[in-house]
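Two quick folds needed for the group meeting slides. Do the first one here.
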Amino acid sequence: MPAAPSPSISASSRPTCPGTPLPCRCPPSPCPQKRWACFETAGHADQSRDNTPQNKYLRNPIQPMKVVLISPDQTELGQLNAQLAAVGNFDLLPLQGTDLEVGGLVERHQPDVLVVDGVYQENSAFEQLEKTIVANPGIAVVLLAKTLTPEFLLQMMRMGVTEVLPQPVTGHVLKESIERARQRVAVKKPSRRQGKILAMVGCKGGSGVTFLAANLGYAVASANPNQRVILIDLNLQGGDAELFVSDGRAANNVASIATEINRLDSTLLESSLVRVLPNYGVLAAAQDTHEAFAVKPEHISQLIDVAVKSHDLVILDVPRSVDPVSVKALDRANEIYVVLQMTLPFIRDAKKLLGDFRALGYGPSKVRLIINRYEKEPEITLRDVQQTLGMPVYRTVPNSYRNVATSVNQGIPIARLAPRDPVTKTLMEMAGELKQPSAKAAAEPKGWLSALKGR
């Protein structure tokens, strides 16, 4: 930041400072848009400190720090909001909520700092707080409580709460606490690695895409116990992905979650999965056509937002139809696996589908071809397929009809049923390529003591 205001800019031409009734005294930033780095509202009102570089965790007035205030008491919430509005330049969002609602509110609004008042006073609520902190490692948490015993403070420290303040609190004290909390999180929290999103779509019915999607998820999760995997069945009219790898029944499905999208958080999502392994679950498709009509593209986007924050790999089983819901899922995917078999109807439909994908802007780096039920001496060769479709084949999955049929009929993953089968070998090779560093391990909060030890 320059040391002094530019002499070519008069005081009268400067924007009014949000923190004082006077023109801004601070120099313009080197930004081409001439944004102003205001020290008044960042707690640097002393003009003699204009030469001090702005702290990294403080933003300029164009992009104020986003602070979400949560309290079950509407009156208390209004007072906190008024106190902070009077002393700081924050983007404030006051929300009335209970301990069971905090996680969902945080995931939807993604603040820089979360201030909770009068929410976590009972031991039964602490588990919800810890889940929220683990799921959102980049968010600083300031807790307000009326009773601060040593045991309570120690428990908050272990759970990763950034700061604890006694109630009642003044606006200036809360403002300083928020700024300290944000600085601490910026220093000790690494940027969270979000999970990879893989969409799988068949060129036509009978391609075997759901079998491959369900069993690929199992292969990744079984080979990497620390990696969390979810399969979301987006075949909204008649999908049955969970039956390929489990005999469990779904508590919720994509459609029922869509009707409660405002409550959706990682806890609700986890409780809705058909659990195949401790680290692998399937979210079932809608149970009937009427339910499917209620699912909108924005529901799918929010569902993926929540899934990708709490899982290392998100697999989407997407139907062949190019409709708004499917396109939203495909847009979000990092990669798209197109599954076909080596017969003329499949190849013809694959060419149409790839044309649709090009029109949607999906380049060759995003789309990969998977040949299912591949025979070693086919009538149509791989070279023929590649020349016709204009792109290379990424992977071939061998034809192993007997074991695949048994796996489907019994609802047992083929890797468990027939670990030496050629299909299992191929799936495990693909799983190795999809292995991701564990987002949970990278996001594990260290608490106050660990931060002190690291200094």
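Then this one, please, same format:
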Amino acid sequence: MALNRIKSHGPGHVAIDDVNIGNGPSSDVISDGRVRVQFHDNPQALATWCDRFQGSFAGELPGVGHLEPSKPRRTNSIAFLPDVEKPTCGPRLNIAIHIVGSRGDVQPFIPIAQILMKPPHGHRIRICTHPVFKDFVEAQGVEFFSIRGDPEALMAYMVKNPGLIPSRESFKGGEVGKRRREMAEIINGAWRSCIEAGDGMGEGVTAANVQCAEDLFIADVIIANPPSMAHIHCAEKLSIPLHMVFTMPWSPTKAFPHPLAAMSYGDADARVANYLSFMMTELLTWQGQVWRKTIRDVDR
């Protein structure tokens, strides 16, 4: 089953079930749920491409002069004058914490929320997760918002399908379709958690129906674990910072491969292959494009 998630003008497609497309890297799912990633051709070209790809972020690639330079961060120069007293604390922020997973995924974020709520920070923190954790979160003195979803059903599905690619039985039994619909509901709930008042347990609350202005909530910052999926899209839509927190390495690095990738390096440079393994697993987990098209016009 070929997964062609990006436009390509040459080899480099990802293949599943031993179907190799082109001369690029290939992959299939092994018994422990990881994806076998094999780099079997032209390692020097991979290394050159990787260096050029990384250099593009620093403006090192030739032919990118037409791109607009990044805008400098806004700063208040008055605050840095020697005779001006600096403020004792920063502005109070609305921070949405997006969590998809089990109780064990929610628990580490409780002390983070509590610290950010207390002086000298004093921010408004909202933990946005499954409704089954409402009482647990509120018992810790933290605001809660439901993004829907059933963690028990999600965990049962993950036990049956421990890797990136669902089993054939899950496809035949209709479980994949159910999980896709549930994830769509969760992603939509995550967006609502950034812009709505209330706790998300019922119908959406519009700003016009909010009696107390202090109940209004527009996220200034998002903290999220990667499985919540909607984080980057919500942050991009609102033009706000995003901070990812997870117990597994999720940022591309040359030091080691993605935890869900079983590597077969062949003649390729190990550090380059490690870096590319993160990109390949990202291609297999990408689900947000349809939703991104709808969020562009949300609440305009």
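Slide caption for protein two: The two ends are 39 Å apart (CA to CA).
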